[in-house]
Design a protein that fits this description.
Blueprint lengths: L7 E4 L5 H17 L8 H16 L3 E5 L5 E8 L15 E9 L8 H15 L4 E7 L3 H9 L3 E5 L7 E8 L20 H5 L30 E3 L7 E3 L4
Parallel strand pairs: 4-5
Antiparallel strand pairs: 1-2, 2-3, 3-4, 5-7, 6-7, 8-9
């Protein structure tokens, strides 16, 4: 009988940077193999890496670690991107999710959706209304993936210096996989029920028919939140920071 998987979340640390950069490189190669222009600008990548290091230093980045202490995924949160969201959007009402990347070796574990669920729970705990993303404007497969996770397209912005701009949001507390939550590192030895009972407000689960493990083509986020998701049944996402 297979033992239960033990992936868990922990804050990213400076020593994780080489591994995270390797995840980014893997994502870039995969995107190129799919013929997408996501992350095709080297300058965008350099700016993204700089922001990534800053997010680690500021405690805004996390990693998902596997059974062998290997890093399987990463995600960051960050400030509102004023290239896209305005005062009318009530920016303080949302948690902004950036730089979601999942390793190819973790395909099929639905880590992308589970990480988004964790961010959703965190947003609800903070009393926010939304989890928000901006993604690469031309990556329709990624757009569809997020819509199947419960995100609604708000609008598309097209600043000349950015390639991201497809804006979407999901209500805080909404869960796509309520029975497959990611535990936090210090809670690894506890049951999922214990992890789920940390005082988080009630959550709405997405109907099974509204979900999908991943798009059939690459997706991705961009500069301020770029993300890319794996191929068929990958269940993985790649996110990029502002660029």
């Amino acid at each position: 009988m297979k033992s239960a998987r033990t992936e868990f979340l922990r804050p990213a640390a400076a020593e994780d940077v080489p591994t995270l950069l390797a995840l980014r490189t893997e994502a870039e190669r995969w995107l190129r193999s799919k013929g997408t222009d996501q992350w095709s600008d080297p300058e965008t990548g350099e700016r993204a890496i700089t922001k990534w290091r800053a997010s680690i230093d500021e405690g805004r980045a996390w990693v998902v670690v596997g059974e062998q202490d290997e890093v399987l995924a990463t995600v960051s949160r960050g400030p509102v991107d004023r290239d896209f969201w305005t005062d009318t959007d009530q920016p303080e009402s949302a948690l902004y999710l950036y730089k979601l990347i999942v390793s190819r070796q973790a395909s099929g574990r639905q880590l992308g959706a589970r990480i988004v669920d964790w961010m959703s729970r965190l947003a609800a705990l903070e009393g926010r209304t939304w989890v928000r993303i901006d993604t690469w404007r031309t990556n329709a497969s990624l757009h569809s993936f997020y819509e199947r996770l419960g995100f609604e397209h708000v609008r598309t912005e097209e600043p000349s210096h950015r390639r991201s701009g497809w804006l979407a949001q999901r209500p805080a507390g909404t869960l796509a996989l309520p029975h497959n939550l990611l535990p936090i590192g210090s809670l690894l030895g506890q049951s999922q029920e214990a992890v789920a009972s940390l005082g988080l407000p009630p959550q709405r689960a997405i109907r099974a028919e509204e979900r999908d493990t991943a798009p059939s083509q690459s997706p991705s986020h961009s500069p301020s939140s770029g993300a890319v998701h794996g191929g068929p049944s990958d269940g993985r996402e790649y996110r990029d920071e502002q660029g």
